[in-house]
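Researcher: Next sequence.
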Amino acid sequence: MPADRQVSFYRKYRPMNFGEVYGQSKIKQTLQNAAANRTAGHAYLFAGPRGTGKTTLARIFAKALNCLELKEGEPCNKCTVCVAINKSAAFDLIEIDAASNRGIDEIRELKERVDQVPSVQKHKVYIIDEVHMLTREAFNALLKTLEEPPAHAIFILATTEIHKVPATVISRTQRFDFRFLALKEIEESLKMVAKVEKIKIDDAALKLIAEQAGGGLRDALGLLEQAHTFTKGQITSEELVNLLGLFDLNEIVRLMNLILAGQGKEALGLVDGFYGSGHDLTLMLSTLSRYLRGLILLKFGQQSGLSLSDEFSQQMRRQAEGLQIPQLIDLVRKVIEAERQIKFVTHQHLVIELLVLEMLAVLGHNGIKSQAAKKEEAKSEPVAKEKENVGAKKATDLSEAKLLNSLKKINNGFSLILDGARLVGFQKGEMTIGLAYDIYQKKFKEHIEAVHEILRDDFGLDNVKIILEVTGPLNVPEEDSAATAKEVFELS
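Model: Next structure:
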């Protein structure tokens, strides 16, 4: 390996032969066998996500096809051909970046030169990276070259967007689909690099880097290098969270605990804390998506694949046990929709707060209520519903506790937005209700007819004008509460 510390990790530790490549075992074996048996085709298509080894395997395959001392399909990395390719100095290995050379002129030039016999190697290998970027005219010219290539020419096309490659081109190649690397494969590679570079990093931090890499080894090595550059001493998962701007999975566990317990006020308070601390809410949603996927895996008896302390891992398992598959499906759909919406709004925290309400509603329909609601219901007396006494009720009998307890009967989801609500005033046919957050007003409006029905049936009140105010959460000083906003609903 080169000793120059200025070389990026992903270049410094790029595999030199098939055996050093992590993952893609079937593809490696097929290419190695083709090189060993001298049965290589004239055109290959490597398709898959970035950072999964497409260009690396293309170069190794090119070496194997031309190595002067090939052994069981593995290049020796010692002969003149291998050394030249490793130094990017081989005349007969032509690499083209289609992202910057996407026009017809570049492909025409390739077509004109393809008949030239190799100067040193047995095969002239053309690697065209990001081939999907070629223009239609360039693809047509390439197609003609692929249809009648000279015996010495081998084409390796690489793409991250296979759907943009014409079917006519795909049909003339041997296609290999690269997959994301497994977490264990990425962790093993990171451990090897950390050992060679003498980087002190704990297993939890390595796992966190592997998770954040999204299945790509190149990104994982980049994150390890970044952490190594900016962190002194032992690299821990806690330091990585702050350094890389990651979202702490432990906070997601706490949020889910509150949502599952039906503690809407506390859940919204936690989200407000995320927003106030300047957290990336888009990243928070992405982390929540991964967490829900982990719950689904646990539900089916698999490992969650997430890096959590023993305490939080146990909490996660309890959450998975307490959830039904239909509930998990609904929760995932809510989060996916929030991820779509958050890209197009100015006030991102509103999307998150509405998501929390929707998640609470999903679980509330399955009988989960807030602890506060349960205590209130246990202490409250049943509200009389005898029709003959309805007309005798008076406004003076209306108390905040009785009103809120009656309104909470509408449904469990609606009861959540009444946590922290208060009866601000009631006189001359106008009732003012204070809500903890402005986002609750929309939900309240959706149930306005049911509210008027409760007022009629339980309190004998008709034609009441309802005014909503945002009074902020309970036990918060007035100067720190949200600015008051009003919206009036009147039964016609």
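Model: The chain is about 50% helix and 10% strand. The mean pLDDT is 83.
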